[in-house]
From TrEMBL:
<feature type="domain" description="YqaJ viral recombinase">
    <location>
        <begin position="19"/>
        <end position="151"/>
    </location>
</feature>
<dbReference type="InterPro" id="IPR051703">
    <property type="entry name" value="NF-kappa-B_Signaling_Reg"/>
</dbReference>
<dbReference type="InterPro" id="IPR017482">
    <property type="entry name" value="Lambda-type_endonuclease"/>
</dbReference>
<dbReference type="InterPro" id="IPR019080">
    <property type="entry name" value="YqaJ_viral_recombinase"/>
</dbReference>
<dbReference type="Pfam" id="PF09588">
    <property type="entry name" value="YqaJ"/>
</dbReference>
<dbReference type="InterPro" id="IPR011604">
    <property type="entry name" value="PDDEXK-like_dom_sf"/>
</dbReference>
<protein>
    <submittedName>
        <fullName>YqaJ viral recombinase family protein</fullName>
    </submittedName>
</protein>
<dbReference type="InterPro" id="IPR011335">
    <property type="entry name" value="Restrct_endonuc-II-like"/>
</dbReference>
Amino acid sequence: MTNPHFYQELPRTEHGSPEWLEARLAGIGSSEVSALLGLVDWDSPYTIWLRKTRRAPADSGVDTESMFWGRALEPVIRQVACERLGLTVELPGTLQSIERPHMLYSPDGFLSDGGLLETKNTAWFMAGKWDGQIPDHAEIQLHHGMYVTGATHAYAAGLIGGNRLEIARIERNEKLIELLVPACDRFWRDFVLADVEPPITGTSADRGAVDMLHPFVGGDLQVTRQQISGLHTEYRAAQEAEKAAKKRKDAAGNKIRALMDGHSRLLVGDDVWVSTKGGPFRSTQFRDDEPELFAEYSTRSALDTHELREDHPDVYAKYRSTSLDLKEVA
């Protein structure tokens, strides 16, 4: 259940209005936390800092095409999710943590069993991230919301490819909350309030921010050897280390897979050391190996892997890619 003593609801504002934009700058929203933890490429501590300190334009409130459809379909996803769960929903506005006013949360719904709701409209090629799991970004959002509201559980409802709804219940994980809350505290204290620029990272978000703040002008620029030598050495060393690290990682991964001998997890006693993590379905290999099944389950736009999984779970498992998920162990 949510706990109203943990939060206050901010005055409701119209999406895209100056008041709405200003409220978003007053704290860290749940969609920004994954970037503070370094889990996404489209946002970063640097770009969030630029927005919060008004050094770069904040969210304009004007939707991209994908954002438009996400907002347009949110009520439909919410309605169907509630029907399938047998629950009713309330729609609060933006919530602010009383203990940590810099933590803001805009839920997609409060459900009648006390859980939170997060709705997602996603493309068909993201289906693997919803197969018995939810994307990390959505899980981080919900745990940020569970901290702000005191909720003990939440639901993620993802509409995949416009024709398949996956719903997952997420229980509150205190270890995850203990990871994200200090990250929000440090960022707000050490960078926003202190007005200190965070380090620029290798994300595409930071590349876009650098290009925006330093547009192309052409020509030559004279710098000192001291300014460039360290970065030049760092970049070249990173290039070589990246190549070597990939070879070592691939070799270690292959050895771990051999040790797993086809199993899903490796345990030492009761401790899970390694598990497999679902990835994209290898459609090209499946097409080459099983042309008749491929033709049977191909629609006009894509291979229907959901139906294939339901009808032929053994075949689906054979062609679904996996990655290794190494756990923190003592």
